[in-house]
Amino acid sequence: MPRLVNEVAELDGRSGPQDYDWLLLHQATFKMLDVLRPRLAIAPEKMPIRLSDGGNTVSCTLPILIDQMRRSGELKSGQRSMLIGFGVGWSWAGCAWSIS
After folding, report:
1. Can you give the C-alpha Rg of the chain in angstroms?
2. Cα dihedral 72, 19, 93, 97 sign
3. Residues 71 and 53 sit within 8 Å (Cβ to Cβ)
4. What is the DSSP letter of 60?
5. Phi/psi class of residue 82: alpha, beta or left (left: φ > 0; alpha: ψ in -120 to 50)?
6. Tens digit of pLDDT for each residue in 39-58?
7. What single DSSP character describes residue 16?
């Protein structure tokens, strides 16, 4: 995960994940995400963990997280986010995303 996050940032012309307003990761488990935060040097307020209402909903965790954050007003126009998904079989993907 840290390597993918750094590769996406580099491809986006940024120095690292700290250059984003939000780092939105697949919501697999609290423990995993909590361990990743310090490894990525990300402040907790920039990397939300929202598992209490739905748990790990597999490939739907990122769309659900984005919807929750839009409804709460956290995602705002002009913000830059990184989306990172991963799953069964060692599959993973990431992208940079500007909110409009």
Report:
1. 13
2. positive
3. no
4. G
5. beta
6. 999 999 999 998 877 777 77
7. S
